[in-house]
Amino acid sequence: MVKDKCWTKELLIPLTLLVASAQSLLGPCRPVKTAMDIDEKKWPGELYYNLMSHNPGQRCSWVYRYLTYEDDKVLLGEEYRHIDNGTEIVDRLLGEHIGKGHYKFSAERDAEPSEEIHFYNLYYDPPRLDCHYVCSDDPAFEEGQGTFVCKSKYPDALKKYSRKIMKIARENGFDLKDMMMVDNCACDNIPYKFGPSTCKGPTVDQFFSPYYSKSK
């Protein structure tokens, strides 16, 4: 059973919010080129984190998305489950539209004020592929680089999307050398609705190589 630890003080992190669990992972927001609005009708569903930057300690990462409403606003809700350096974490988040492809997320909490994280949607075709960039205005993250993430309905990244992901990353100023494949092998904290991980996924170099084809 997943232990919901994200609201306890023992974790000693400000807010995981989508992809980051340490100050070095986030960074000041910078311009991106391919920001696009989210089709709210396609938001609800389940996705696995397949590839991301700057977080070698993260594995078993999955998100359940839903819509919720506040006054006249449509808010994007997420329940984000992952294991970070051996600790199971569940984050519940709410986001609202700010500008083209730009959303602001915060924790769904009643008691304490939470920090806000900026979310720039870079490519949106769920459940096939969904890529975005996460950053912060908080001075505590000024030394970070921001986080690039791609998700899909499959626990393992599909090789056929490697060129698309490469193009999105490069167009928006992300270095492929900073990427990591998210290990979703044999995870008890997340469901396997579309089948389990093969546990034989490629390395980042293999994933982006045009000469490597041993991938689902």
Sheet with most strands: strand arrangement: 1-2-3-4-5-6-7-8
Our measurement of the CA-to-CA distance between the termini, rounded to an integer number of angstroms, reads: 29 Å
CATH hierarchy class name: Mainly Beta
* Main sheet record: 8 strands, antiparallel, barrel
What Rg, in angstroms, do the CA atoms define? 16 Å
Order of helices and strands: EEEEEEEEHEH
Query: Any idea of the CATH topology?
Result: Lipocalin
Structural class: mainly beta
Mean residue pLDDT: 83
Under the CATH scheme, the architecture is: Beta Barrel
Report the count of strand segments. Answer: 9
**The CATH homologous superfamily:** Calycin beta-barrel core domain
| Share of residues in strands | 35-45%
Poorly predicted sequence stretches spanning 5 or more consecutive residues = 1-24, 109-113
Number of domains: 1
The total of helices stands at 2
Broad shape: globular
Helical content stands at under 10%
Structure notes:
By secondary structure, this protein is mainly beta. The chain has a single domain, classed as Lipocalin (Beta Barrel), CATH 2.40.128. It contains two helices and nine strands, in the order ββββββββαβα. An eight-stranded antiparallel beta barrel has the order 1-2-3-4-5-6-7-8. The two termini are 29 Å apart. The N terminus is likely disordered. Keywords: Signal.
